[in-house]
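job 3f2a | input accepted
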Amino acid sequence: MTARPIHFVKMQGAGNDYVYIDCFAEPTPADPAALAPRIADRHFGVGGDGLVLVMPSAVASGRMQMFNADGSESEMCGNGVRCVAHLVVARGRASTGLVTVETGRGVLSLNVASEGPRRSRVCVDMGEPLLAADQIPVVHAADSRQVVNAPCPALGAPEGWWEAAGLDPRMTCVSMGNPHVTFYCRDVARVPLETVGPRIETHAIFPHRVNVHFVEVLSPERVRMRTWERGSGITMACGTGASAVCVSGVITGRTGRQIVAEVPGGRLEIAWAASGHVFMTGPAEEVFEGTWWDA
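job 3f2a | predicted structure (295 res):
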C-alpha cells in the first residue's frame, strides 16, 4: 500500500498537546480511531495526548472531533477546543473575537484574543455542569442523587500512600459533557497517579470510564491538580477537568466560584458564573507543522 501524506499541526494548551488535522484543507482520515494511537505515539509517531480533527460545520465556525491516545473517542476537551478556535481564526476561517465550535457536548462559544500568528488566549463558555449521578454517569446510588463527598469503592482498601499524600478518600463526581471524579489531598505530588489513575478510570462504577483528578487546595482561589485522563493517561493539563474541579470545590465548600488551577503545564483560570455556566480561560499555541506518512 502506498503511504499517504497527512499534513498536521501540533498544538498545545497548558501542555495538553494534540495532533490537529485541518479538514477544511485536508481529506478527513478514513479511520481516525485507528490513526490516533499511531500518530499520537510519543516514540514512533508525532506525539501527543491524542488526535483532533478540525472540520467544517453547518452550525458553527468549525467542528471538533477528538480521539484519545488509545483511539477511543471523547465528547470534549477544554484545552483542545481552545486550540481549535485559535486554528480556525489563524487560518482565516473566522474572525478574532467570538467563535463557535461544534463538539460532542454541543456548540460552544469562545472568545479568541490573538497574541501572535501562532498563539492566542481563549475563553471558553463550557456550559453548565451535570451533577446527577446518572448524567455523569456513576453507578453509586439507586436514584440520581449527586455524588458529593461520597465513599469511593474504586480506591480499594487504604494504602501506604494515603497518609503520605494526606488523602481524603471521598469522591465528588461532575460531568462537563464528559465524566470526572475529584479527590482532595494535602500533597498531590505524593499520589502514585500512574497506578491509581488507571484503576479508578476503569472501575465498574464508571460505565463510560472517568477522568481522575487529585487536588491540593492552596487557598479558596487557587488549587494545584494532577490528572489521569480517560484514554490518554497522565496529562499536563485537562480543561474540562479543571472546570469540574472548580465546580467540585464550590459544592464541597472548599473553594470559591473563581479559581486559578495550577496544572503541570501551566495555569487555567476557571469561573463558575451565577448563570450556571463555567468559563475557562487559557492559552492555545501552535508548536510545529509537519507531514505524517500514513501507510
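job 3f2a | The helical segments are 32-39, 78-90, 160-165, 193-201, 239-251.
job 3f2a | closed
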